[in-house]
């Protein structure tokens, strides 16, 4: 018996369209198909880009108040239909229903912030008379949209990470073409639904679903696409950089986030925060806690308390409001995590809890004594596994925290402000959370990292900066007017 699934259309140039080819979106919890989605061709992607370029070039004036109105009404639509958004997000992805509701709330805020920032895209006057001989010159600079933005988004935050690209692009006056992750395209399509409802002019948003191998290169290489915004893995990021050519590229490529816990910290608070930071969203979170360095005098107590708290987490049905940890995005990913854990154990690591896989479910796992040569020690696990290790002191912790090719975010727990500032100065990361785990972010802050964690910054205002260019205007006044 075949289960009938809902046929969903993609948005190209203001029109909801089918495709001759489709693919199923499945619930990772049980592999049950939940929707049939168009599998776009490179011709479809080309049409979306051409419609975006046409919409942008033919819009002589798109006033700020209209952009604010569209963004505000899209946010209002999302708020009115928040539960529908949350259930869509939870069904196609890994998040529990409670986590999905939280993401929807954040995505609404992201679009609201975009509306607010649209009115603050300002320039500055320039004192040209600072240069000798330029006493009769005055001027300013202002920001203008680049035209067409291309966005490629991952599965782990399938709504809010799309909102972080669409919101700033529209706020700045750009058209945008989104290629969402193939395993979680439904949330992106629902966001597009909100913008269509809000009266976004045709062509300013397209969401093209399908295989990255089929349509990704068209989006990345097309000369009309002036800015690329990508969130995903480092291998794909490197390939995109090679293909993109001379255009602006913004990338967030993940991390292996450290947290430092010192003897003067509130250990119970640190445990609570780090358990949440390590295992929320099944660890499929670029700023999730992966390594915890605990000063040696507190190590045993911290480790015991952490294991106990981890054991209290409920693994199960993600639609159950009592569930803490749902499935990973698919069984393949769960098997990968299992293989990394087993490699670490073969090299001498100690397993304290977890280390168990059931289909797409991987149980929250705590390891210690993990050697530096184990893959899990230096790469991003992107799963519910955390490494807890003792350190001699803060200097040792900072040094070991920096000993990976990632630098997105970090955390430190301490009651000494001098220790906090030592970490602030010494940790090579894009963000440091004091008395919080690495897994803390608000959507208005600059977000990005150093080293292999990416290029540029997201966060609405900072994304707008990358999606606009500066133009300088200078007037030379006639002598008879002076």
From TrEMBL:
Q: Where is the Aldehyde dehydrogenase domain?
A: 16-473
EC annotation from Swiss-Prot or TrEMBL:
1.2.1.97
Keywords of the record: Oxidoreductase
UniProt superkingdom: Bacteria
For this protein, the record's CDD domains field holds: ALDH_y4uC (cd07149)
SUPFAM superfamilies in alphabetical order = ALDH-like
UniProt key word Oxidoreductase: yes
Catalysed reaction equations from the record: (2S)-3-sulfolactaldehyde + NAD(+) + H2O = (2S)-3-sulfolactate + NADH + 2 H(+)
Q: Top-level EC class, please?
A: oxidoreductase
Recall the GO molecular function terms of this protein's record.
lactaldehyde dehydrogenase (NAD+) activity
Which protein family is it in? Belongs to the aldehyde dehydrogenase family.
Q: What does this protein do?
A: Part of the sulfo-TAL (or sulfo-SFT) pathway, a D-sulfoquinovose degradation pathway that produces sulfolactate (SL). Catalyzes the oxidation of 3-sulfolactaldehyde (SLA) to sulfolactate (SL).
* Listed name of the protein: 3-sulfolactaldehyde dehydrogenase
What taxonomic ancestry is recorded? Bacteria, Bacillati, Bacillota, Bacilli, Bacillales
């Amino acid at each position: 018996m075949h289960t009938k699934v809902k046929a969903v259309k993609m948005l190209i140039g203001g029109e909801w369209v089918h495709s001759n080819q489709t693919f199923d979106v499945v619930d990772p919890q049980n592999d049950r198909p939940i929707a049939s989605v168009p599998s776009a061709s490179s011709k479809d992607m080309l049409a979306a880009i051409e419609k975006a370029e046409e919409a942008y070039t033919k819009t002589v004036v798109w006033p700020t108040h209209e952009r604010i109105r569209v963004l505000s009404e899209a946010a209002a639509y999302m708020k009115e239909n928040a539960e529908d958004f949350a259930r869509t997000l939870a069904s196609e992805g890994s998040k529990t229903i409670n986590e999905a509701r939280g993401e929807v709330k954040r995505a609404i805020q992201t679009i609201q912030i975009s509306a607010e920032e649209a009115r603050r895209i300002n320039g500055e006057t320039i004192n040209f008379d600072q240069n000798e001989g330029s006493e009769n010159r005055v001027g300013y600079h202002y920001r203008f949209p680049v035209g067409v933005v291309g966005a490629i988004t991952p599965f782990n935050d399938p709504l809010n990470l799309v909102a972080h690209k669409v919101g700033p692009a529209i706020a700045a006056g750009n058209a945008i073409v989104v290629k969402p992750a193939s395993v979680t395209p439904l949330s992106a399509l629902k966001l597009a639904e909100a913008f269509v409802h809000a009266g976004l002019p045709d062509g300013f948003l397209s969401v093209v679903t399908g295989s990255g191998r089929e349509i990704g290169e068209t989006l990345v290489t097309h000369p009309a696409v002036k800015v690329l915004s990508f969130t995903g893995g480092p291998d794909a990021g490197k390939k995109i950089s090679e293909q993109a050519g001379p255009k602006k590229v913004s990338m967030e490529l993940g991390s292996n986030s450290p947290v430092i816990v010192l003897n003067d910290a509130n250990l119970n608070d640190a445990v609570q925060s780090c358990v949440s930071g390590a295992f929320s969203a099944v660890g499929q979170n670029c700023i999730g806690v992966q390594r915890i360095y605990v000063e040696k005098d507190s190590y045993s107590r911290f480790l015991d308390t952490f294991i106990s708290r981890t054991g209290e987490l409920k693994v199960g049905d993600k639609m159950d409001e009592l569930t803490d940890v749902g499935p990973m995005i698919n069984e393949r990913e769960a098997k990968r995590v299992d293989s990394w854990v087993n490699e670490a154990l073969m090299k001498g690591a100690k397993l304290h809890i977890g280390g168990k896989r059931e289909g797409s479910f991987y149980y929250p796992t705590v390891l210690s004594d993990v050697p530096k040569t184990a893959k899990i020690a230096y790469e991003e696990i992107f799963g519910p596994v955390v490494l807890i290790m003792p350190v001699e002191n803060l200097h040792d912790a900072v040094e070991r925290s920096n000993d990976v090719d990632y630098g997105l975010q970090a955390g430190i727990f301490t009651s000494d402000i001098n220790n906090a500032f030592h970490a602030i100065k010494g940790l090579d990361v894009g963000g440091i959370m004091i008395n919080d785990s690495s897994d803390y972010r608000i959507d208005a802050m600059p977000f990005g990292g150093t080293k292999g964690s990416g290029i540029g910054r997201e966060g609405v205002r900072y994304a707008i900066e990358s999606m606009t260019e500066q133009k300088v205007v200078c007037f030379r006044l006639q002598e008879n007017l002076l």
